[in-house]
Amino acid sequence: MNFLLETLRLGLNNLRLHMLRSILTSLGIILGVAAVILMVAIGEGNKNAAIRDIQALGARNIIIRSQRPPESGDIGTQSRSSTVSYGLVETDMNRIKSFIKDAKTIVPVKSLGSEISFGAKRSTSQAFGTLPELQEALDLQIQPGGRYLASEDLNQRSRVAVIGHSVAEQFFPLRDPVGEQIRIDNQVMTIVGVLKPVGLSGGAGGALIGRDLNLDVHIPLSTAVLEFGEVISRRNSGSFTRERVEYSEIYVTTETPDEVLPMAARIRRLIDMKHADDSDVTLIVPWELLEKVKRTTFAMNILLTAIAAISLLVGGIGIMNIMLASVIERTREIGIRRAMGATRKHIVAQFLVETGTLSAVGGILGIILGVTLSITVSTVLPWVLELGSVQRLIDVDINFEAQITGWSIIVSFLFASMTGLIFGIYPALMASRQDPIESLRHE
User: Fold this and answer.
1) Over the chain, what is the mean pLDDT?
2) Which one of 29, 137, 176, 184 has the fewest CB atoms closer than 10 angstroms to its CB?
3) What does the alpha-carbon distance between residue 59 and residue 217 come to, in Å, rounded to a whole number?
4) Model confidence pLDDT, tens digit, residues 149-176
5) Per-residue pLDDT, 78
């Protein structure tokens, strides 16, 4: 016990006498541990953000979407009379209802109009005819004072609309939109509700669903069919297109997440029977995408951790180099200790205490630095990227967050400590093998 305490005292005292050198020696360990914690935190935070966005699409949803076939890409610009027909039709809807009887809900969505306007304010149309069940399928929330579409609206073909949060901010920044009237092309609709903000404006969710739900305008499906028909005329960047699409999307919701993948496989086979050759219908399964994101981000975390761990190896090499130099510098001290009765084991222990202390203290300081950076970077970096000078240099739109994980702290600290000890073994052995007589003669 006295041997251990004395060895520890000597090792710590030597580090204290060379404080600056000790700090510089452990700097590689400090930065390595901080880098591991920060990289894992960034990877974990971005993974959770992507998962939230995908879950917002509905973990129990299967989205069947019409998509314009590639070969029809320029037909609309050739002639004003050209009409492109593609996508989901009533027959598809009926077949899905007939063969997918175990679905909780089946909700069609019909795209309509080319422009939404209120007074002099105008916006490209993102209006859709749909059923009241879409609110449950997409977990849409309504702001107080309004409501979503109801069965009576469908039966009476009411000219009512529910607008997204961004539409309300754009057209009605200073007043309550409920009761106001907007135009979808030339059709006037009365606003009965405003959606609460939907977190899909960026990130994985927005990319997957293909649009920002905050810009949506929803009207009853029966009204959409009556007022707009099947052909949609659009003007975009000087081009004019006419498209015949009965349903732009169909949302199928299962009772439980476990049913999603089997039901999606059945729907794929059902859709492929008619649309396999046309490539005008695609399936989006958020549950599938959720699993892919988890696997991908896990692999990315491993990669980022491995890259950051290189800093720890560099730090370990730095410790070894400094300790080797210290062995030469302290040759006479080693000789005196050996002459006073210290064994090789004592010399090895002293040098290992010093390297172990350097790596352990460096690991603790690295943890503090890594945690501090992880906490601040998710708020500081977006603020920096929003600065006008930065925006002029690069066009960025980043949703950035970091989430600290306990395992990254434990693993990085253990790895740092082991690195210091492993790289300290060779200098310690070199010191213990010094010949006492030659060491005492060393100047």
Assistant:
1) 79
2) 176
3) 23
4) 999 999 999 999 999 999 999 999 888 9
5) 45
Q: What is the 3-state secondary structure (H, E, C) of the chain?
A: CHHHHHHHHHHHHHHHHCHHHHHHHHHHHHHHHHHHHHHHHHHHHHHHHHHHHHHHCCCCEEEEEECCCHHHCCHHHCCCCCCEECCECHHHHHHHHHHCCCCCEEEEEEEECCEEEECCEEEECCEEEECCCHHHHCCCCECCCCCCCCHHHHHCCCCEEEECHHHHHHHCCCCCCCCCEEEECCEEEEEEEEECCCCCCCHHHHHHHCCCHHHCEEEEHHHHHHHHCCEEEEEECCEEEEEECCECEEEEECCCHHHHHHHHHHHHHHHHHHHCCCCCEEEECHHHHHHHHHHHHHHHHHHHHHHHHHHHHHHHHHHHHHHHHHHHHCHHHHHHHHHCCCCHHHHHHHHHHHHHHHHHHHHHHHHHHHHHHHHHHHHHHHHHHCCHHHHHHCCCCCCCCCCCCHHHHHHHHHHHHHHHHHHHHHHHHHHHCCCHHHHHHCC
Written as six digits, the tokens of 170 are 């754009």
Closest CA to 313 of 28, 23, 30, 22: 28
160-163 and 187-194 strand pairing: parallel
pLDDT, one tens digit per residue, over 371-391 is 888 888 777 776 766 666 656
The answer, as to whether pTM is greater than 0.85, is: no
Domain spans of the chain, in order of start: 2-53+292-441, 61-253
Task: State the greatest distance between any 2 C-alpha atoms of the chain, in Å, as a whole number.
Answer: 107
Structure confidence at residue 130 (pLDDT): 94
pLDDT tens digits, residue range 112-127? Answer: 887 899 988 988 878 9
Between residues 107 and 43, which one has the greater pLDDT?
107
pLDDT tens, 420-429?
Answer: 778 777 777 7
